[in-house]
Design goal:
By secondary structure, the chain is an all-alpha fold. The chain is built from five helices and no strands. It has one domain. The radius of gyration is 21 Å and the shape is elongated.
Length: 145
């Protein structure tokens, strides 16, 4: 099996080929076809076809967003546990002040730089993008959907 390339800020975003390059294009094409069919041949069967295709498209998108939301919840929990182990006892109550977005971005920070980055995040309210840019030792996350 080929080794994974090192993950960085520049390459950490992922596309799912089956979703992004197959399912979505097919659904978009079907949606366009259904609209054209309804315009050219008005009738209830084409209305139902359009509604069915729209329902399939919504189902596909919602299914993906549900999976991402569950992962965000798990990441948030993992990061709270990790930070509780890494931060000094006096700093642990500050974990609750971190937003979901900040916790999700902090997962990429190495254990060595996480405590300092948490303090900096809380003091200047860094955004997700700013946190990722500030990370020097990237901790890869290859499991994200």
């Amino acid at each position: 099996m080929a080794e994974k390339s090192a993950q960085t800020l520049a390459n950490h975003g992922r596309l799912d080929p089956m979703f992004h390059f197959f399912l979505l294009p097919v659904l978009v094409a079907l949606l366009i076809h259904s609209v054209i069919s309804l315009i050219r041949h008005p009738g209830w069967e084409h209305v139902w076809e359009l509604l069915l295709v729209a329902a399939l498209a919504v189902t596909a998108v919602k299914t993906r967003t549900y999976a991402l939301k569950v992962q965000d919840r798990v990441i948030r929990l993992e990061e709270r546990l990790r930070l509780a182990a890494l931060l000094a006892e006096s700093s642990r109550p500050q974990i609750a002040r971190l937003s979901e977005s900040q916790l999700i971005a902090l997962r990429f920070a190495s254990d060595e730089e996480a405590p300092v980055l948490v303090q900096r995040t809380l003091s200047v309210n860094l955004s997700r993008a700013d946190i990722k840019k500030a990370i020097k030792n990237w901790r890869a996350d290859y499991w994200r959907v």
